[in-house]
Amino acid sequence: MPVSQAITSDNHLTGDTTNLRFYGVLKRKPCHINGDSLINIDFGKVRIKKIDGLNYKQKIPYSITCEEYSPELKLTLAINGASYFEKSVLTTTVDGLGLKLLANGADFEMNKPVQINFDSGSLILEAVPVQKPGATLPEKAFSATATLLAEYL
Hints:
Elements: H1 3-7, E1 31-33, E2 58-59, E3 64-66, E4 74-80, E5 89-91, E6 97-103, E7 106-107, E8 114-117, E9 125-131, E10 147-152
Antiparallel strand pairs: 1-3, 2-9, 4-8, 4-10, 5-6, 6-7, 6-9
Pfam family, one: Fimbrial
Domain Fimbrial-type adhesion: 22-152
InterPro entries: Adhesion_dom_fimbrial, Adhesion_dom_fimbrial_sf, Adhesion_dom_sf
């Protein structure tokens, strides 16, 4: 006897049934970084001879706001971009010049998320110009781009 006939034979199952209802709300993103606006950090005029990894340090002004806050909310934060001669140094448009990224005063490795507790406050992020050892920097404008990424756990 074919298998399909055995399954559809006159044997009746006894019991009860009910319907299942699945539902939810899709949200594009429950939290927003900096009101979804571009973050600009202007270093102004930087004297080449004063680049030492301390001078010209700039705070990266950002905020994270969440529509439905919960004390259990856990986030990771990362700065994604092209690293240069160190894992915490962002590549710029000038060969030999990078921007060292700091989180709470310590090196902040590029492309590596760190967990933050929303209740205990955000990380203090900073960037400071650094010169690649042995490089000679020309006089010219510089820029760099990266992405600040918050992911929800």
